[in-house]
Design brief:
Oligomer: single chain
Strand content: 25-35%
CATH class: Mainly Beta
Number of strands: 5
Structural class: mainly beta
CATH superfamily: Cupredoxins -  blue copper proteins
Helix content: under 10%
CATH topology: Immunoglobulin-like
Number of helices: 1
Largest sheet: 5 strands, mixed
Radius of gyration: 17 Å
Number of domains: 1
């Protein structure tokens, strides 16, 4: 039996996890066309080399892929479920901070930087959540925006 290359193993892992995971679902009762929830929590990841604990979204590493279309508005609730874990230390400017604080930032999308959209200064501590509303302009180009 031959060995798979690392890229094939990773590709297989990502494909199998992402195809069955969220994208945006209709929620007509709330008047929202595209809604989804991201839960940040501790995730254990095991390979033949060992197990590590890290942050993950919806129990996955990498987190779920969000597929968005031009002319649409998306409602994303980001829940920080990191309660009960030790808090980090404020090490000053440009240093390691609290690993249990999170936010959502859409690299590469040309959307509003104002809250509740793509505001990178939003601060979501453990046991809190934030509802993002991101509107994709109708003339937005396609692509993989990480």
């Amino acid at each position: 039996m031959g060995k798979s290359s690392p890229s094939k193993i990773i590709s297989s892992l990502v494909t199998s996890k992402l195809t069955s995971t969220l994208i945006q679902d209709s929620d007509p009762a709330n008047g929202k066309k595209h809604t989804t929830v991201l839960d940040m929590n501790v995730v254990e990841y095991s390979t033949r080399l060992g197990t590590t604990r890290t942050r993950g979204y919806n129990g996955m590493i990498p987190g779920p892929m969000l597929v968005m279309e031009p002319c649409e508005t998306y409602h994303i609730t980001l829940r920080n479920r990191m309660q009960g874990y030790p808090q980090g230390q404020d090490g000053g400017f440009n240093s390691f901070k609290d690993p249990y604080i999170t936010n959502l930032h859409t690299h590469g999308l040309h959307v509003s930087p104002a809250s509740p959209s793509d505001d990178p200064s939003i601060y979501i501590p453990a046991e809190y959540e934030f509802d993002y509303v991101i509107s994709i302009p109708c003339d937005h180009s396609g692509g993989l925006h990480w």
